[in-house]
Amino acid sequence: MTPEEGALEARVVIDTRAHDRTPLISFIVPVYNVQDYVIQTLDSLATENFQQVELIIVNDGSTDDSLARVLDWVSTMEAKCLVLEQANAGLSAARTTGMEYAQGEYVGFCDSDDWADVNAFVRLAQFAKERDCEVGLLRSAVYDDMTHDTYDFYDAGVWDGILGRASTLVTNSIREPRLFRLEFNANYRLIRRSFLFEHGVEFPRGRLFEDLEPHFVEIVYAKRIALMDATGYFYRVARPGKLTYDRGMRRFDVLYAARSSLKEVLSGGIDEVGLAVVFLSLCRVVFWSGQFVPNKERRKFFTGASEMFQSMVPLSARQDAIVRWSGDEFEALLVAAFATGAVGFLVESSCGNKRSLLKAMPMITNRALGGRARRHALRKARRMLTFK
Amino acid sequence: MLRQRQIDPVVRMLDGRVPQKLLEDDAWRMRNDLHGPQMFPDRFGGSCVLIGARSGLEAVIALRERPDATVFIVDPNTEQQKTIENIAQALDASGKLRWFTHASDLTANLGQDFIADFVRIDLANFDRVTVAEVLANWQVGYLCGQFESTVFDPLKLYRECRDHTKRFFLRYADSFRALAGTGDPSRVEVSVIVPAYNVEPWIDECLDSLTSQVMERIEIIVIDDGSMDGTDAKIDEWAQRFPNRVVAVHSKNQGGAAARMQVLPMARGEYIGLVDADDWVDHEMYEQLYRAAILDSAEVSQCGWRDVYERSGRIVEHLSRSGREANGLGVVDNVRTLLADQPTMWRRIYKRDFLFGNNVVFPTHLKRFDDAPFQFQALLYATRISNIPECYYSYRLERQGATVDINDRRLFVHFDIVDWMNEQVLNVTDRDVETYFAEFEINTHRWALSKLDRALKREYFVKAARQFVEEKQVLSKWDLFRLGARKGPGALGFVALCIFQAMLSPGRSSRETGMTARTAQSAGEVIGRP
Q1: Do B297 and A229 touch (CB under 8 A)?
Q2: Which class in CATH covers the domain with range A11-245?
Q3: Does the interface ipTM go beyond 0.95?
Q4: Over the stretch B133-162, which tens digit does the pLDDT of each residue have?
Q5: Which residues of A, range 11-50, sit inside 8 Å of B by Cβ?
């Protein structure tokens, strides 16, 4: 599949919405072969505030019983729903279609095998509207479908850091560059609809990591971002056949997404501090997905990634990411490797070679990195050697 | 998952008016998901039934967070009724709270088929009478609570909940472990797939052992792979005798892998078992494997097996002890350690959704030993495997026509297997997995070389050496050498000779030299060692 522009032909199956008033939130729910999960998702989005919430369900050419179950659900609910149908074109295309039909003041997304706490989203929307925020964020949690455990999402530490002890916070990326380090998923946030169109936020069609670029666009352009200390979104993990586990060449999509993210934040006038954090979070995403790239292609993958970073991120931001923003030892080395093009280290670490520090020598001895960042990386490397 | 902030204001409302200890405990429970991923009715305007009032915290939070829901409290002890009702009134939700002393009163009041979207049963009220009342008379959307595993057999409880609720999430009283699942009253628990090719003398014993399983909801799918003896007629006979359990499928001869792939989509079971038609199983096997898989929420569960030598009558038991506990029971700690084992896929059951979701297949172009790639994929993608030690599977050896006994060119199929694995499965890999696969290769090639006809040994070894050394994605020659050293002198000798051989004649096209013949000769000696 190649990314194409423009909307797909979508058919309105049923529309129970009132068109005379603007709802507070439009939830867009793309549906593709999730007959066992979709009802739970929709149930979680139904609320007493059905005047305030509209659901836009986009059936992305499911081949199972999903559409019938959705229609059955819609017919029994008071909720305001629009059900659309289109030929299978992937998550991004379905979201794009949904966005075109949305009427709400804020737009949210919900994948059809996860679920949300709609009341938390309504409270967030009210708060965001009150404080004139373009973007609102809620915490997310993970439900393991196999072990039945529920736990905070991986970015909980970033949340704790940003919120401090506050229960709500209005901020932006200049005051709080750590916002870039939040998970890039589109599902735990609300975005003002006018803002979406003004900044042309769109999900690249037919690619993985479709959420990456919109995340950075939203954070860099929003003047006010509302954060609320409540869990709003629940990811279901360990469901067999979930998209995230896709192995193979499609992982190269992350490079495309990272490049366009960088372009966007640079043209959005990001400052050095923010850029360092963007660079750091992109390093993490790229390295993580590199572990799923075929081994034969991995050198090419990491070479491409670090060349991109070296050409697009100025040296001072790269140094800053190593010295000021990286967390543990490994993260510092990872960022240093991307910053200097120590591809051997990246390839070996991505194969799980714990003794790959030898390959880290080019980056530690790389004079271009500058004295302070070099000393920092060296210190981290030494600590890793002594502790592991 | 509620955050402290959502709980605290309600705790303050109740503070001093209800037992302090219960209140603290309830606050902890709501923060830590004692009742699983759900806390309220998932349906708009639904009902929330709390059997056992406890401190009332859950009821008040439900009234606050979900004004659309109706809260029913069932508790014979009405001490706190006034307090909680007063708070409900203060919240302007008094019409949304109703109190009953017994679950049966609720049924009597609201009628049978009462839709209970969310039911929480407290440990003190989790008895047979209450559970029977709830499951038999209400339509339960989500059931949660704590149960005593000395009173309720977990598997039995699981089955009851599966048949009578939409979803359930119950915690063991003595641990934080959960017994959870989704409802499906007609679910087949295990589908057993049996490909049969010219096995007339043995098929009866096999199918007899399968049809007399303790497990009730089992289906047996037998596929006759174009047999030329009386196998097909026998299969039909069994299908007629057990129309609800046995499905007979006939096809032209296509090999075990293709036969299995043909019937896999037919399997309806939650788990899938694979049995060879010349083997047999104990009547408890699938019940026990299913119990292990369900109670450990595992994708795969496995048991021990016994080798039965047809000619000598010798029986060798292989207890399975790979679980986490000291006695080998329970969840396997590091699933990957199983990767290098010999293929024994028939001693396991595999979750159907797991196999399909990860696209675990039998490569149909392989004429034999297709179980090796299947097992490697299944164990590679599995994250939780449950283990029970007992031997339930009887594996027949030394029978006529069995593939395990061949010693000719047909053993060269191993190169196709390794090629397929390298292309399809190990194209994305890490050091760990490739090391286990290399170990698997060493075991397989040494076994094949020990079986092979003398005249073919040299050719086999040359091929094996090249493939083994040159087609590694991550591991270097030095890594392979170290692996051999770790595995013992026989393996080390094999690896060393392979590396030597590969260095002598690199590439697929090079010719064999006198030197090669000698290395192959000594390889044979190394391999000959037990």
Answers
A1: no
A2: alpha beta
A3: no
A4: 999 999 999 999 999 999 999 999 999 999
A5: 36, 40, 43-44, 46-48, 50
